Every structure is written in structure tokens, then in C-alpha cells.
Amino acid sequence: MIVVMKPKSDERQVNNICEFLTELGLQPHVSKGSQVTIIGVIGDKRVLADKPLEVMPGVDKLVTITDSFKLASRTFKSEDTVVDVGGALIGGGNIALMAGPCAVESREQLLTVAKAVKKSGAQFLRGGAYKPRTSPYAFQGLEEEGLKIMHEAKQITGLRIVTEIISPEFIEVADKYADVFQIGARNMQNFQLLREVGRTKKPVLLKRGLSATVEEWINAAEYIMSGDNFNVILCERGIRTFETATRNTLDLGAVAVAKAKTHLPVIVDPSHALGKSEYVLPLSRAAIAAGADGLIIEVHPSPVDALSDGRQSLTPEQFDSLCKEVKGMVGFLGEKM
Ligand code: PEP
Ligand code: MN
Fold first, then answer.
1. What digits encode the pLDDT tens for the residues 54-76?
2. Which of 4, 105, 22 is nearest to 62 (CA)?
3. CA–CA separation, 232 vs 229, rounded Å?
């Protein structure tokens, strides 16, 4: 539920409502707009059933939102959220390009990719140090050594680091090296992990689960935001369907829906969605045209030698051509990069 304050309400009245809600065991979150202040209410609203909230001083109206999420909702905050990662902006017309290998494999591999993607125009370097692999016998990642290599790449190139956290126990160590925590598709409903990253103030890239509805995906964002971390970036990465021609099915409709229903930036991962490098460019174009706030793309210096996801990885040269096209589109659409 959202409490919309009257345009002329004052701070004392807003505080009074917040105290009232807190005493009832609810969590108020105040959002001050240029015209009106609104208060998002989290908790079991049944305690409000016989309370005179609507007639309290300064209250204009109560808006019950049918969506199960609140903090992520456009009803709670109408303007686009712009996530600022050390000066690199995502959302609100700012397009972000994230690129790098599926997994950090070696210093040489990562530094080669980092320098190349930086030159092409990426602002973020992706790379997994902890890999959630389908098989327990597949390469599981270099763990902290991989994070240190990412950090070195950041110092050399200035790229911001995006890396996946697969369990709450790795947050402390990854916090030292990462600029953005990635929550992978397989962990989208790992609620303990979502709560833990919500307690940090670090931006979180939240991938959509393989079989998650848009509502479940946004509710996963809500978990993070309810811990007071509003720096959430949604990422559509393809869902499971009956189609086998591509690894997953890229759901660009979900990008439009998520952008309409939430104020969060939404980016697209065409690499995991399509699973084949030759389809990454056409669907990157489509994602930007559909309103995505950025792309996250797998790039490897030698895809045939990659320890994971080589089939879908672009070479640095292919990524360079993709960047040129995307930059042209961004200018055409009146966005910034
Ligand atoms: C990845 O980014 O390498 C990855 C494992 O992604 P997803 O969680 O989308 O499968
Ligand atoms: Mn991958």
C-alpha cells in the first residue's frame, strides 16, 4: 500500500505517519517527489484494517497496489532509477555495455579481453569467479584468485567489475573487488542470498530465473530492495520454452513489461538467451530497440578454447562491430552511452 500525502503536507505530518506505521510493526519508506511525498508501506497491512490512516493530518489518499511488489513499482516511484556505479550510469536513458568472458580463466585471458572491450566502448567488465555449473565436474571458477585478476583488470582499464555471487558466504570477499554483484538465473529465488545482498549497498544485477514469471522476477528485486538496497538492475537472459533452436528464448516482451511496471533499469543478456554467437548481434539490436538500458555480452579472446560458454562467446573483433552498431542506435534513439 502507498500513502499519498497532500501537496501541502509538511515534514512533521510525514514523520507522524511514519511513527504511527512503525508502532504497528510496519516499515515505512518515504519518497519525496517535487510535488508530493509518498510513503510506501511494507508489512502485514491487516493491522491497518481498523485504523484511521486515511483521515490522519496530511494524508491525501491511500493507494492499494494490486501488484505484489511495492518498492520496485512505478506506483511507488514514477521516475526511472539511474544506478550510478562509480560514475558509470545505467537507466534513465543511459545505456550500459557490460562485456567479458563467462568465467575468469587466467590473468592473460582476462586482461586481453578487458583491454579489448574497453577500447570498443564497454564501461563494465563481466567475469565469473564462482561459476554455477550444471555439472559438478565442470570448471567451477578461480574463486578469490579470479576476483584478484578482475581487480587488476579494473586498475589497468578503469572498467567496473560485475561478478556473480552464488552464496552468501562469498559476499564479504567479493565486496572487496566487485562493483556490481550478479545474482544468476539459478539463484533468482535464493531468498537468503537476495536478503544478504540487500543488506549491502552495492549495485545488484538480478538475472531472471529460467522459469520465472515477470512478477516473480520483480518480487526477487523487491527482496533486495526491502533491505534498503535500491541499486537493482534487472537482466532478461532468456527463459525455458519448448523451442530448442536456441539455448533459451529471449523474452523481449518481458523487458517492455518490466520497464512499464518498475522504475528499475532493465538490461539484456543475448549471450545466454541465444546460446550461439551468430545470434548475439541481431538480438542486441532488438533489445536496444525494445528499450533495454544496456547489454551484457560474453566475449572471449579465443571462444574455441573457453572453459565455459565458448559457443555463445564473441571474439573481441565481433564485439567491436557490435559496439559500433549499438552506438549508432543509441544516438538515433536519443539515448546516451
Ligand atoms: C553467466 O552470466 O555466466 C551465467 C551463469 O548466467 P545465468 O545465470 O544467466 O545463466
Ligand atoms: Mn556464461
1. 999 999 999 876 677 999 999 89
2. 4
3. 7
pLDDT over 70 (residue 285) = yes
Partnered with residue 291 across adjacent β-strands are: none
Q: How far is CA 198 from the centre of its chain?
A: 12
Task: Provide the grid cell at 7.
Answer: 501537496
- pLDDT tens string 79-108: 999 999 999 999 999 999 999 999 999 999
- Tell me how far CA of residue 57 lies from CA of 53, 114, 236, in angstroms: 9, 56, 43
Q: Angle at CA 126, nearest 5°, toward 125 and 132?
A: 165
Residue type at 248 in one-letter notation: N
Residue in the block written with cell 545474482: 183
Ligand 1 atom with the shortest distance to the CA of 238: 9
Asked whether the CA dihedral 165, 253, 68, 227 is positive or negative, the reply is positive
- CB–CB of 16/58 below 8 Å? yes
CA–CA dist 36, 9 (Å, integer): 8
Q: Supply the residue whose CA is at minimum distance from atom 1 of ligand 1.
A: 102
Give the cell for residue 234.
Answer: 534487472
* Max Cα–Cα distance, the chain, nearest Å: 67
* Ligand 1 atom nearest to 208, measured from its CA: 9
Give the ligand whose atoms come closest to the C-alpha of residue 133. 1
pLDDT at 40: 93
Query: In degrees to the nearest 10, what's the CA dihedral of 46, 52, 55, 57?
Result: -100
Give the rounded percent of residues in the chain with a pLDDT score beyond 70. Answer: 99
Amino acid (one-letter) located at 122? A
How is residue 165 written as a grid cell? 555471487
Report the pLDDT value the prediction gives residue 51, as an integer from 0 to 100.
Answer: 86
